[in-house]
Amino acid sequence: MTGCTFKRKLPSGTISWGYSIDAGTAPDGKRLRLFKSGFDRKSKAADALREKLNEQDRGEIVKPDPQTFAAFTERWFSEFSARTCSLKTAERYRQLAAYALPQLGHVRLQDLSALMIEPVLFRLKDAGGWNRKTKKARALSGKTIHHIAGVLNVVLKKAVKLKLRDGNPMEGVELPPIEPREARALDSEQLRRYIEAARACGLWEVLLFGAATGCRRGEILGLTWPDFDFTRSTVRIARSVEQTAAGLRVKPTKTKSPRVITLPQSIVAVLQFHQERQHENRRLFGSDYRADLDLVFCDAAGDYLKPDSVTAKACLLAHKLGLSHVSLHTLRHSHGSQLLSQGVPLPTVSKRLGHANVYTTAMVYAHALPKDDVTAAELWDGSVGRAIEAGETAKIS
Fold this sequence. Notes:
The protein is α+β, with helices and mostly antiparallel strands. The protein has 14 helices and ten strands. A three-stranded antiparallel beta sheet has the order 1-2-3, with helices on one face. The protein has a three-stranded antiparallel beta sheet with strand order 6-7-10, with no helix packed on it. A two-stranded antiparallel sheet has the order 4-5. The chain starts with a strand and ends with a helix.
């Protein structure tokens, strides 16, 4: 690799020095060169040139890359994401990247800057997301913007590591704040109505189990009968069913560690009755029944229930009952909230929900149910307030 210094006369009349380095040829045969200018003296440009050539000798030089940001992002998905992400995560990353690529994808990978990226993210925040149902643009939440930025950051970090560009422009991007949003939890009466209504749509056992254990959707749909110990009233949560574009797959739980939780006696009785009825389906379907899966919650032929279909039915049921923003996952929030509300220790709730640490539980599920605030006031009144009131009364008399 060779290089040279050059002199430029700016419109202001100022003399500026720079350097140029021959960086070989691109795949299309075009000559590639590295340029840098803005030095006020020839000696400074020459020093910078020598340092750049030394970087080449050490294997640290960043070669100009003609590919666009969109092309490199696609390369990242096809070559690198499969080694670091699950199929579902990779699908979600593609969805998030698709928000930004229409506006940034045409830019050369080397030319992409924080000044280009930041306005795009703020435009998406204001009204840049496309709603396929309404065929209109819609504002994206701050949380979604942070997720989009996270994908861009991962892709650009890889480009820097491969020495395809100098520095990661995401380091200079300021993101909009994430709006605080409290997770929705149902109170006891709402929960009772929701689960009872599920009898009519075939989701009664699924919703009841979710409400009683706080298990995730995929964990519930991946349960098999050998996971249960009815003598001890326990269940072992060891796997999860995930729905991807390629189909269903069974994977370990989110924390990769199985957990054993105790079941309420009322749920044990329901499950035992559910198992008896399932035996009738096995008899009716005969050899066509998927007895090899031995699933607890399955279709009539013993096969997996599709997670997305279960969620859609759960959301539709909630909508018909007038329960806004309620889904199958709401049962998990409700379970954790109600246990904490009734004084169950935080570590116990965290273990039951399968969180990696107690901090996660405290941040996500320690929100108070509406009635808890009234209870807190009454408890304070009973222990402190009345004593103060008695003291004031004694002074007056």
